User: Which sequence fits this backbone?
């Protein structure tokens, strides 16, 4: 079957580092992407990992290990505005399949 | 310009009404999508258009009817909806359906639909 597993909630303090994990199960894997969605807002593309390793974009980094069917999103120097839901996703037969999402709460 | 626009922002309709949701993008993208999202859940794919042709229909009930008049516009026609269809309807676009491109989708702000 196809599935993505990620924690439902994560809490961290401002200025800290947080890692949101995602494990997946699928055939025909082409990579993993991450989206951010604020309450009442639209999902926003953050990153895409097609190959193993770390991709860095400013305070956000994303990692993929295809052999472990595992990826993570790393958020550094957390800010209050990072409080949002984060979804990992993979493509299957042309369809983007999302995980259930991780709600990140950043506290002062 | 990386913007996808959707109208209306909010829509309340009765079960016998007919209404349409509209989506527009001017990024030259050739793939466009409709998603449905319930509260605290991930977006669920409904339809995919590629080069103005319907590519994927995720077994969506016929009371939802998509239309792609041209490469920039996507409509979703609604008729005889049920209260359980109340949700946020999101439009998205990507450069095309090639795997690398389809991973990077740009979403509009959505239409919050309430069916009474």
Assistant:
């Amino acid at each position: 079957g196809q599935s993505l597993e990620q924690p439902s909630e994560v809490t961290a303090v401002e200025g800290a580092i947080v890692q949101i994990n995602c494990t997946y199960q699928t055939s025909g894997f082409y990579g993993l992407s991450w989206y951010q969605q604020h309450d009442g807002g639209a999902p926003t593309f953050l990153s895409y990992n097609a190959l193993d390793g770390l991709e860095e974009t400013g305070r956000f980094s994303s990692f993929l290990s295809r052999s472990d069917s595992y990826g993570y999103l790393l958020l550094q120097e957390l800010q209050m505005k990072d409080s949002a839901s984060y979804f990992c996703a993979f493509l299957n037969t042309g369809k983007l399949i999302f995980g259930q999402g991780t709600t990140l709460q950043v506290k002062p | 310009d990386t913007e996808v626009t959707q109208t209306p922002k909010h829509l309340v309709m009765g079960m016998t009404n007919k209404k349409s949701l509209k989506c527009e993008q001017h990024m030259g993208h050739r793939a466009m999508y409709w998603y449905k999202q319930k509260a605290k859940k991930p977006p669920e794919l409904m339809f995919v258009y590629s080069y103005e042709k319907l590519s994927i229909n995720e077994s969506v009930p016929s009371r939802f009817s998509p239309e792609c008049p041209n490469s920039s516009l996507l409509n979703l026609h609604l008729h005889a909806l049920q209260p359980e269809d109340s949700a946020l309807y999101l439009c998205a676009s990507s450069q095309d359906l090639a795997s690398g491109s389809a991973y990077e989708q740009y979403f509009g702000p959505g239409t919050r639909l309430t069916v009474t």
The mean pLDDT of chain B is 95. DSSP finds one helix and eleven strands in chain B. The two ends of chain B are 36 Å apart (CA to CA).
